[in-house]
Structure formats: C-alpha cells, structure tokens
Amino acid sequence: MENNPFTIVVEGDGKGCKEALQETMKPSPNIDCTLTVYTNQSQNNNDEKIRQSQGVICKLCGVHLKIKSSLKRHMLIHTDARHFECSVCKKAFKLLSHLNVHMRTHTGEKPFLCKYCGASFAQQSVLTKHTRSHTGDSCFQCELCGMSFTRNDSLLKHRRTHLRQKPFSCTTCKKMFSRADNLAIHTKKHLNKT
C-alpha cells in the first residue's frame, strides 16, 4: 500500500472503527477527504470481485465469458432443453434473451436505430453489420486476393468464386451457381418463359 498519510489500515474485523473515527475526527471546511477503511472482510469481497472480473472460458466450446457467473447461463446452449416458448408461434428457445429478441418479429419492434440513415433494426448485431456499410469498416479480408468486405457472409460468398464452388442449382435446368441471389435471378427467367 502506498505511503498515504490519509489512509488508515484497521486490523481485525474493523467493527466499531467507523464510529470511533467519527468521534475523534472533526471535519474541516477546507479539506475534501475520503476515508477508506480496509478490513479482512472487505479485502475478501474485493478479491472475489477481481476473480469475477477475470472471467472464465467454457470447456465445451472455448468461448470466453467476461463474468464467471455467466457460465451457468451459457451452459444452457450446450443442452437440448428449450424452456422458453413463444406464445404466438410456439417456437421454443434455450435462453429467455433469445425469446425476447424473437418476440420482436411478431411485435415489429425495432429499437436499434442507425445514426447515419435512420434505419431501424430488431437486433443490435444487425445494426452493427449495417453500420459498416456507412463507415466503410472492412474487417473481413480475402486471404487469396486481398479484397475486403464489411460483412463475413459477403466474404464467404466471394471465396466461392476462387474455389469455384457452386452449391446452388436450378431445379429446372440444373445450372449451378456460386450465390443464391444469382440462382434467384436465373430462376425468374424460367418463370417469365411460361
């Protein structure tokens, strides 16, 4: 502990110390003083807060949780139990927070507002992805050609062009496409012919 003349260290449990100090010390109008009394109990509480803030890593999936007490809640995603059911469509969720987000699909609530264009979104994560289109933050880069993208799914679509993967096929003529949107455009051509 640093050599501070205004710090008082109390050994033992510290009971009665505050009252004793209040009786012997008179406040001065010119000095703004904060008194911190350290006891074994308060030190133990502080140690626990530090342990909690260091977080924990899930042994099943490796995700890092900032707060140790979040591990119990997190472990629910590794079970098949879905205790939270939507009263509208009966879809069930493992976490209450996931049900709450889902309910916005029924209510139409979109509380997350883009500060650039005013668009609103039901989920924070969707707003974050959208915001990158305004800021130009390209944090997803193709390791093959260096091209950058604002969204991971855009990078994954782009990679298929390098790998010549074409997982989307037309049910009418069997032509293959690397992107679902290109297949959709192609499919409309068949519909327009009929």
Protein architecture, described:
By secondary structure, this protein is of the alpha+beta class. Among the domains are: 8-49, no CATH class; 61-109, Classic Zinc Finger (Double Stranded RNA Binding Domain, 2-Layer Sandwich), CATH 3.30.160. Helices cover 40% and strands 12% of the residues. The chain is built from seven helices and twelve strands. It has helices at residues 17-24, 40-54, 70-74, 96-107, 124-135, 152-163, 180-193; strands spanning 8-9, 37-38, 56-57, 64-65, 84-85, 92-93, 112-113, 120-121, 140-141, 148-149, 168-169, 176-177. Strands 1-2 form a two-stranded parallel sheet. Strand 1, helix 1 (17-24) and strand 2 (37-38) form a beta-alpha-beta unit. The longest helix is centred in the first third of the chain and has 15 residues, at 40-54. It is extended, with a radius of gyration of 29 Å. It comes from Phallusia mammillata. One of its GO terms (molecular function) is zinc ion binding. Residues 56-83, 84-111, 112-139, 140-167, 168-194 form the C2H2-type domain. It is found in: Nucleus. Keywords: Metal-binding, Nucleus, Repeat, Zinc, Zinc-finger.
What structural keywords apply?
single chain; 194 residues; alpha+beta; Double Stranded RNA Binding Domain; two-stranded parallel sheet; two-stranded antiparallel ribbon; 12 strands; 40% helix; 12% strand; Znf_C2H2_type; zinc; Zinc finger protein 626-like
